[in-house]
Records
---
Amino acid sequence: MNIHTVIAGAGISGIRAAFDLAELGHRVVLLDKAPSSGGILSQLDHQFPDNHCGMCTLLPMIDRDKGPQFCLRKGIFHDHVTFIPSAEIVSVKGPAGQLSVVVEKQHTGIDPLKCMACGSCESVCPVSVPDGFNEGYSTRKAVFLPVPHQIPNHRIIDFSVCTRCGECVKACPVSAINLDGEARKLEFNPVNAVILATGSGQYDPAQSDLYGFGVLPNVVTSKGLERIMSSSGPSKGQLFRPSDNKPIKRMAFLQCVGSRNLMENADHCSSVCCMFAVKEAVMACEKSHDDLTVSIFYMDMRTFGRDFQRYKDQAETSHGLRFIRCRVHSVEPCENTDGMKISYVNDKGMYMEETVDLVVLSTGKKTGLTHPDFYQNEGVFALSDTFDFKDIGESLVAADVAAGKAMALGGPPHTPEQRIFDTQRLSKKAMPLLVLCQCGNNLSNDLDLDLIESHLSAMPGAPQILKLEQACGAAGFESIGTALTSSQANRVVIAACNPFLFDHKIKALARDAQLPDGFFKTLDMRSHVTGKTKNEQTQSLLSQIKSTVNSLNLTLPVYREKRTVTPSALVVGGGPAGLSAAFCLASAGIDVDLLDKESQLGGNGIHFSPGPEKNSLDKLLSSVTNHPKIRVHPATCLTRHQGLAGVFTATITTPNAVEQKIPHGAAIVATGGGQAQTLDYCASQHNGILSVFDLAKGLGDKTLNPLDFSKVVMIQCAGTREEPRNYCSRICCTKALLNAIAIKEANPSASIHIFYRDMMSYGESEKIYTRARQAGILFIPFDLHKKPQVAVNNQTIHVTGFDPVLQEDVQLAPDLLVLSTGIVPTDNQIISKIFHINTTQDGFLKEANSKWRPVDSGREGIFVCGLARAPLGFQEAMDEGISAAMRALRILGRPFLETPQVTARVRHSLCSRCQACIPECPYQARYLDEENGKIMVDSVSCQGCGACASLCPNSSIMMGQFEEKGIMDSIEFFLNEACP
Amino acid sequence: MSEYKPKIVALVCNWCTYTAADLAGTSRLSYPAEIRMIRLMCTGMIDQKYILKAFLDGADGVFIGGCHPGDCHYIDGNIKAEKRIGGTRNLLSQFGFEPDRLALQWIGASEGPEFQHNMTAFVERITALGPSQVADRMIL
């Protein structure tokens, strides 16, 4: 099978791009330089702004059976994705669409095909070095598990520290270790595209002598603290000081280490460190039951994402975090105590000292990274801002954009695999085959397999037993195949270790035997056998086998609904997000109906002044209006939206009040937003008071002349970032800075004061902030309790604000006052009702999960993007549009949608139509079919959680492999087991 | 009572607690042999029937392990479970049985040591409570 795309970097973006393409039916090779997948996220257990994990939410939802349903932190398992650890691309040659990609796979010393992950090698290894996974706060051997919770859990050898003493070779029971191998070259040819998702490393604070990192043991990086607090970390989740394992009472976070520092040549903001610090501070407080004082020394708290501001406020009030605005001067060891002294000058200009137990450096991104030389090749796509730090949601959007470019290079259309089933064999009563792996006779020492055999033969529906020395090897699978052909067995239980490693082999067995995948079950003999004595372990395994065999015997073939997909999309809203979504879909060959309530497409973009943003919007507009696959419906309203993912129908009302029905498979909502209005700061009382957006528009279209203004005052966060609109609108700060620079450049004598709370010039826009300061624009910070006061007297604007540096009020009489009022959504009240999707408390359309499903609505088949979802910039909106289109293509790119194995179904004869299950479904997959009077399950949206099944008073819901009877029987087996 | 070994059924969610159990297994963190674990997709799938069935069939304790609130793969299945299990605990105490025989714990995927600790502590707790009377009295 041809490989469509090779993706370098198996961090979260790489994984997302791989799943994107895999869900379109393409084969993908995903590789990583590191010996494990997950990138930085393999080290982080919790994410802001809710301290949750949720990485598994990233797994494919439509075709769930393409990989085992399992925690994604364990590893990447998908039929169409091949993960190669410890590998790098060395060359890419040839034209796009027919690339030849050479990958170098490092020699890791251990043959994964032989290794049984017993760990004997590690126990004899004499080397001890700091463990990188725990940021050096624990030690590891030269032969080690790179990430403890990942599978495959074969150890690897770090040859840079290995002494080649050969002890591990002697200790290995299966001769899997070879100390003398070399790196292997693998060639993939032809490949359509290459995606670079290699990411950025973290700035190493040891490279400068700032703050004593590397010298003082209790100065740690934010990632180091994350490991110290992790359950899989050095102190098993306890918060201790690294130097002496004493509890921590006072902790300080120093922000912007390696970022926002011209002396370090780091004129950028690393975007995520602020929230990262707040999250860690909250986690630390929770771990120490708030018996901890945390101070965060910051310059600007950049809380510009969904719910970030409220999260920070909540942390401040409920955990008493101290936020201190300043750069810390130095960190020194204390003379008499074992703490560290932090010295700084506070915002009142006073020299301060504080003693703390732990200093956390919020280190930003690494700088100076460059793309490999094949980056320029056609068909090679790097994620936008590959080397930037980004929030998870934004990384996923960037991955979708890159996957979209790779997809555009073509490839075979999605042809779902046609499976043939041996109906004769299936229709017979359940005949299970049990494969017992003896793991090279290793397990016979711990388990009495003969006893298991004799006990099983007595159980009803007894399985046929096949004992194998090693099931996981090629020979093992061949014997299982032969046993299946020669017998009438129609269900298979494989008791072995690490069953996830064999998922694809088991699927191949199922295919050959013409049986459904769900009729094959694996049982992990190593991890889930409890007990210390042989007797206990045998008993534990025996009851597990009985329960597995029994539940499999009860499993019936699933009726797989095939829903034919309407291969067209509906895009509501013709602003930047909607336009780019429509264009992306149309380029993939999907018919698009693009609706806009205005007669002119472009959304907020129609006000753009000449420049790169306008150019790119104009280009997009002409591509969309001229695209044969896109039908534009201007001045049209959506009135109704019905149906299920893949088979929706929309009712629209055209300008001449004609109703029209549009069938479509997926809908993208990009209804946009606009600037908020405020009554604060005398906003409407003087024509010299403008909003930041109106000023930008005026300067752009030359209706406002910078020479007319000699004194300008700007006030940021006017009516926003405080309740009830307690969110940051992301773009106002940068817009204000650009406005101020434009005025200052045209009129150098103008004085410009900007009152701000936190300058949200995240990422590369930090450069604009630097430029503004260099241009002589004055910045005055203010707190919510000391806002600047504005009065209009005799046609003059008077602004009074408190200057913390002078420690006194400053009085200004500007001829122009500019308010940054923020962004609000426009039509969400109506739109959310039409689509039955939720809104946030601020009225934005609510995504299913702001981290892991940033453009999915709560309903499958409906996607949200652009300003209607959240405030964002022009390029961000365009990217979100593409992201939404890529998500929609998971549905539209298939000829039909098929029911996965574990899906709820209703036994209508038992259902009393009480409808209690309808609100219980977290995916809105249940509905009452009024015509037939039946409760129905949308089998595509249903994810098989079983919430409905546990609620149903009549047990009318069937859950595939998690049938009520099977679970009840298992309980019985476990409790009535006889001691062998 | 030194020979008394409680019978314990653990109903665990596939995404978090089962992964933690897996990690405990692969990290060779042994937990008590008295525990029999049943993997379900989500704790939200747990019907009260399963818990009562276990007690009626002679279980001395039922342990339910799910994802931390907010971590649920199915958005809020664990929250639904929490409500339901609270109800079942009330039911147990209304009939004069110790509600502590039924425990609900959140154990995240990377919390192998947490899993081991919770399991050991639960077995100790149930051992201290002694054999359950639910099955004998059969009044539930």
Note: The radius of gyration of chain A is 31 Å.
---
Amino acid sequence: MGKVVVVTSGKGGVGKTTSTAALGAALAQRNEKVVVVDFDVGLRNLDLIMGAERRVVYDIVNVIQGDAKLPQALIRDKRLDNLFLLPASQTRDKDALTPEGVEQVMADLKRYFDWVICDSPAGIERGATLAMRHADMAVVVTNPEVSSVRDSDRIIGLLDAKTMKAERGERIEKHLLLTRYDANRAERGDMLKVEDVLEILSIPLIGIIPESSDVLRASNIGAPVTLADAKSAPAMAYFDAARRLAGEDLPITIPGEKRGIFGKIFGRKAA
Amino acid sequence: MSIFRLFARPRSAPMARERLQVLLAHERSSVGNDLVTLLREEILAVIAKHVQVDPDKVTVKVDRDEHVSILEIDVEIPRGAAVMAA
């Protein structure tokens, strides 16, 4: 039986889709069978980030409504044989996702894949609660910024109340993924530090992804950042996060601790 | 660098941290609002099966302190309210 992971955040634009694609690809690069599922019905974007937007024929709503079989809707990644995408529909209304339909799709996917990674829509409405409903683990994507931290706190509350695991009295595993982190700004006192966010949200940290132009570049070319440039700082951070998700115990490193302009000039002279 | 800091703007991250801590402490304690609404509806439904009550005269409140939460239910039943067959 595969593990179901929801990538969620409450707030939009913090990096849920980027992280879903990067973590999904990183796990597939470890030779695990992975499917990434877009739950953002009406505003799908995971297809675009994965570079599969022109290959979408059927979507999750077609499967739920019985217009297509699940294997017909799954899109195999062109770079990795064991990575698949189940897209969301672009046009139909949000009520097209039914709790029973989602339950069936999740149960089927768990049988074939090692990892089912669900990209949640922003907000706390139906789409977001359905995306988290069947999760074994949650990755809470947070930016070091007040509104994102507040919304993450709200989502953590929902994870503890509205998931199947929570309703059965079990604890859902929650992990914090801090994205768009700028170590220099945090050091200067102009951005919340890792410790600040951890202390406020009090869930374990699974990774710190540095703010980086490599993320935008990867989305421009339609590849998860771990595939677009495996040596880039964000890709390495995602690889580490994927290993921790798979249960490895790795020390957390703060990526991209570059020196400022003065540090560069004086640091080099001193060296 | 410290000489530059003297003229720099005050650091903003500590303010962010403090504002969040105050706000979330408040918001976490009121998260139970959903539960209160649910309790209110269900309690009202049970009472309404047996006694006629005005929905606006039913208050459900949760007070929390460090150790316990107190659930307070206040139902106003008008004199002579028809008691339905149980």
Note: The two ends of chain B are 80 Å apart (CA to CA).
